[in-house]
Amino acid sequence: MNLEYLASVVVASEVENELVIYPDSLVGTDSHTTMINGLGVLGWGVGGIEAEAVMLGQPIYMIAPEVVGYKLNGVLPEGSTATDLALTIVEQLRAEGVVGKFVEFLVQALIA
Description:
Structural class: alpha/beta
Number of helices: 2
Distance between the termini: 31 Å
Shape: globular
Number of strands: 6
Strand order of the largest sheet: 1-2
Strand content: 25-35%
Radius of gyration: 18 Å
Largest sheet: 2 strands, antiparallel
């Protein structure tokens, strides 16, 4: 299933005659649910009972994790690939013990 069809990405509603815009969220039971985060949608992977409760209209309560910034700039060395970059970033994040946290990438521009 394509999760991007289930999420609006940005939700707009009117509150007290003012337009309020906030990011969408999605709850799923698949291990790949959190990949929706790449589209700017906050995706949570949960168990079957929790997902069933949400489908029946019950709220889901979660503590927002700490946000960790990762500054990325410069040019990849000759012969490096996007896979090399991704593996290096994951290695560095694991070495710093970044688990169960949101990672925000701070990027001016990427040069291909």
